[in-house]
Specification:
38% of the residues lie in helices and 21% in strands. The protein has 529 residues and is α+β, with helices and mostly antiparallel strands. The chain has an eight-stranded mixed beta sheet, with helices on both faces. A three-stranded antiparallel beta sheet has the order 1-2-3, with helices on one face. A three-stranded antiparallel beta sheet has the order 4-15-16, with helices on one face. Helix 8 (288-296) links the parallel strand 8 and strand 9. Residues 57-100 have low confidence and may be disordered.
Length: 529
């Protein structure tokens, strides 16, 4: 007895052909070709049609204008709507067989688009009154690609999209009308109204490279965060304690990190009229001259301290208690930083952590073993911590090892805020939010693919960063609302698709079905607007 089954075959053009194959034993005795699909939606229709053909004898529903749209139960993520009473059998709704000429003409991701649009408006970005700029920002969240390709991205979800000429005009207006200034004001206004704009901000710098060989006045080869030798630019980012972006600036690729912070802070202060500001920069900003410059500009600061001076700062503790600490113990000290006219006394806060102590000791043991292997000739000569070299003699530096073990578990913080005004615990907790800047940079580089940059002109690069700046704010906002990583959130929302299907000359709309587990996320996102 023969058997019949559905087969999918990849064609030479890359499409997927759907066939009904009839076999007798191992011999194919017939193949019925139903068509080829280039999209998942078309494939779903063909598979549903094939399934219907394998079950002959069922009634065919008449899709007339007077009837309600009828469900295609086998199409993924499309909700079956109520069938008219005359199409029911034995009191149960039945799935409609698919006509042979059924064609999916659109598959809108309406849920995704409405959530992105609402977030854009909620942050105040609609003040720009530029639909083309909004299209570029939201398209970058859906699929980071070139500005020209953003049209394709929007077409794929059946979202409104401008022409390519309009997109490029919008990039010009972005610079002429200083969109970034308006966006930054919208971000701060939103955070002030919802989370309360704290006087505490985090700052760090990253590098974005170019797919280019030649340097110019802006794109310079410099110290790369990614250890590349391509021309790059420096990008300074200011965020609030939750990682929400507040200010973004671009600098030459070879500019020293320590010289970028003052211009960014002053621009932020001038833009929003904020007078009392505490900044938490990366530890790379720690130098006596840089801290003096931050203080002279009228700002307070909290920055990570190197432990090289800890034995002297904590001499009294080591003299009386050795290296014994309790978990979470906090110690206060002061130290003069700088020389000559630049010398100023700074407050130093230290905290000991049992978890950090265990980690530090593991690293010390690892580095000690590496140094010992080099000293004994078991590993080739190379620069290793804890190794002391005197001519041809190689040995462990026991004093350095002893000192490292004495400092294991300690972390230091430098600030110009007085003990009476800010307790040590607040200094420590404020610094621990610095990771949020790194999280925003990761989102910028990975989820939003801000680099590599293919633009050459300064204005074009600036406009590109403005688009990324706006997308970053929306991404952080949606992630904060939903509690779901941005990339996964966009993927899940993009999969919720309705369908417009042309059947026998009539367009039927099939509503999207929300996958199990996403209802709660959608409720959180909708609750924000």
């Amino acid at each position: 007895m023969g058997s019949r089954f559905i087969r999918k075959v990849r064609t030479a053009s890359g499409a997927i052909a759907v066939q009904i194959v009839e076999k007798n034993g191992r011999t194919v005795i017939g193949i019925e070709h139903l068509g080829s699909a280039n999209t998942d939606e078309d494939l779903a229709v063909l598979l549903a049609s094939a399934k219907e053909r394998l079950l002959p004898g069922q009634d065919t529903l008449d899709f007339s204008v007077e009837q309600k749209p009828v469900a295609m139960g086998d199409l993924p993520n499309w909700t079956a709507q109520e069938l008219p009473a005359e199409t029911r059998s034995a009191g149960r709704p039945r799935s409609a067989p698919v006509a042979a000429d059924a064609k999916v003409i659109a598959s809108p991701a309406t849920e995704l688009w409405e959530i992105l649009e609402a977030a854009y408006d909620r942050l105040g970005f609609n003040i720009l009154d530029d639909t083309a700029f909004k299209a570029m920002v939201l398209a970058r969240l859906i699929e980071p690609t070139s500005k020209a390709q953003s049209i394709r991205v929007l077409q794929q979800i059946d979202a409104p999209h401008p022409s390519l000429r309009t997109l490029f005009r919008s990039l010009g207006a972005c610079i002429e009308k200083d969109y970034r200034d308006q966006l930054a004001k919208g971000m701060v206004a939103y955070r002030s109204a919802t989370a309360g704009l704290a006087s505490l901000v985090m700052y760090d710098v990253t590098t974005l490279h170019f797919e280019a060989k030649d340097e110019d006045k802006l794109r310079k080869v410099g110290m790369s965060k990614e250890r590349r030798v391509d021309p790059q630019i420096q990008v300074g980012l200011l965020v609030d304690p939750a990682g929400f972006p507040l200010e973004l600036h671009m600098f030459e690729g070879n500019k020293a990190e320590t010289t970028t912070i003052i211009p960014v802070l002053q621009a932020f202060q001038a833009r929003h009229g904020i007078t009392d500001l505490v900044v938490v920069p990366d530890a790379g900003m720690l130098s006596a001259n840089n801290l003096n410059a931050i203080e002279d500009a009228g700002f307070k600061f909290i920055v990570g301290s190197r432990l090289t001076k800890a034995p002297y700062d904590l001499q009294e503790h080591f003299d009386t208690k050795g290296n014994r600490f309790t978990n979470g113990q906090v110690l206060e000290s002061t130290r003069v930083m700088g020389t000559g006219k630049n010398a100023r006394e700074r407050r130093i806060v230290y905290q000991w952590s049992a978890k950090r102590f265990a980690r530090d000791n593991r690293n010390i043991n690892l580095m000690e073993r590496k140094a010992l292997a080099v000293a004994e000739g078991k590993s080739p000569m190379k620069k290793v911590r804890f190794l002391k070299v005197s001519g041809a003699e190689k040995e462990l530096d026991e004093k350095v090892i002893e000192r490292a073990r004495m400092l294991a578990g300690l972390k230091g913080y430098v600030t110009n805020m007085l003990v009476d005004s800010v307790p040590a615990t607040l200094v420590i907790s404020a610094y621990h939010d610095l990771w949020q800047v790194e999280a925003s940079f990761r989102m910028t580089k990975s989820d939003l693919r801000a680099r590599p940059i293919f633009h050459r002109e300064k204005d074009s690069i600036d406009a590109h960063l403005t688009v990324v700046f706006a997308a970053l704010a929306i991404g952080r906002h949606l992630q904060e609302l939903s509690g779901v990583p941005l990339k996964r959130l966009i993927t899940d929302l993009k999969a919720i698709r309705s369908a417009k299907v042309l059947i026998n000359g009539q367009v039927l709309t099939f509503a999207a079905q929300v996958p199990e587990g996403l209802e709660e996320v959608l409720t959180k996102l909708r609750g924000g607007y």
